[in-house]
Amino acid sequence: MAEMLKVNGLKAWYGESQALHGTSFEVNSGEVVTLLGRNGAGKSTTLRSIMGLVAKRAGSIRYDEKELVGAPSHRIARAGIALCPEERGIFSSLNVRENLLLPPAIRPGGMTVDQIFELFPNLKERLTSQGTKLSGGEQQMLAIGRILRTGARLLMLDEPTEGLAPVIIEQIAATVKTLKTLGFTILLVEQNVTFAAGLADRHYVMELGRVVDEIPGPAFADRIDSLKTYLGV
Ligand code: ATP
Asked: Which CATH number fits the domain that encloses residue 11?
C-alpha cells in the first residue's frame, strides 16, 4: 500500500511547554489507523500539529511527498487533509444546511450537500434545525459532513464517539467503514477501544508525547482487555 503520511520525530510545544517529544508513525493510503493513549498523551496535539494548528513544531510530517512542518494550515488543507476536532466545531446559531455550506470545497472531489445527506439521511430530516437543537450524534455526523465538503482525502477524527450512546456509536462506525470503501484514509483518535477494534487496520499507542507501541489490526483482539485497563476505560 502506498504511504500517504509519515510522521517522524515530531515535536510540538504550547509556549514553553513541550507536548510532543518525538512522535513517529505512518498511515498508508486507504487505511484506518488509530492513535490510542491516556488523557494528555498527546493524541489531539498530534492531529493539530499535522493540521498546522500548533505554532511551534519540529521534526517531519511528510504527506504525499510534501513536508508539512513549517507549512501554514491553509496550505495543509489544500494538500488534502481535514480535521474534525473533539469539540466538533459546529456553529450553534446556524442550521444544518448552513453549517454544511460554510466550509468551502477547497479541492476537487469535495462532496455536495446532497451527497453528504446520502451518507447521513437523518441529517437531511434536520435540514433547518439549528446546531444547538441537534443531538450529540447528529452534531458528530454534521461535523464529519462538514469536512467531507472540503475534498480532503485524509480525514482526521478526534474522539468521534465521545459522549455518544452505543447505538449512535454503531452508526459512526458504519460511517467510517463507508468512508473507507469510498477511498478515504482515516486517522482516528479514540479512547473507545471496542470501537477502534472493529475499524482500524493498525493502532498506535501514545504515551508522554511519543508513540510507544504499534499493534496490527489482527493482533488487537488479544490486547483489548489489557489496553482497557491501561487506558482506564
Ligand atoms: P485528551 O484525550 O485528554 O485530549 P490527548 O492525548 O489528546 O488527551 P493532548 O490534548 O494532545 O492529549 O495534550 C498533550 C499535552 O499537551 C498535555 O500535557 C496537555 O496538558 C498539553 N496541552 C494540550 N493543549 C494545550 C494548550 N492549548 N496549551 C497548553 N498545553 C496544552
From this structure: 3.40.50.300
Count Cβ atoms within 10 A of the Cβ of residue 171 and give its class: 0-12 exposed, 13-18 middle, 19 or more buried.
Answer: middle
Among protein residues, the one with the nearest Cα to ligand 1's atom 16 is 19
- Answer yes or no: are the C-beta atoms of 190 and 233 closer than 8 Å: no
Enter the C-alpha cell of residue 10: 515530531
pLDDT tens for residues 158-179?
999 999 999 999 999 999 999 9
Closest residue by Cα to atom 14, ligand 1, is: 42
- Rounded to the nearest angstrom, the distance between the alpha carbon of 223 and the centre of ligand 1 is 25
CB of 35 closer than 6 angstroms to any ligand 1 atom? no
Domain span holding position 52: 3-231
Instruction: Quick: pLDDT tens for 106-153.
Output: 788 889 999 999 999 888 888 888 877 888 889 999 999 999 999 999
Take atom 21 of ligand 1 and give the residue whose Cα is closest: 19
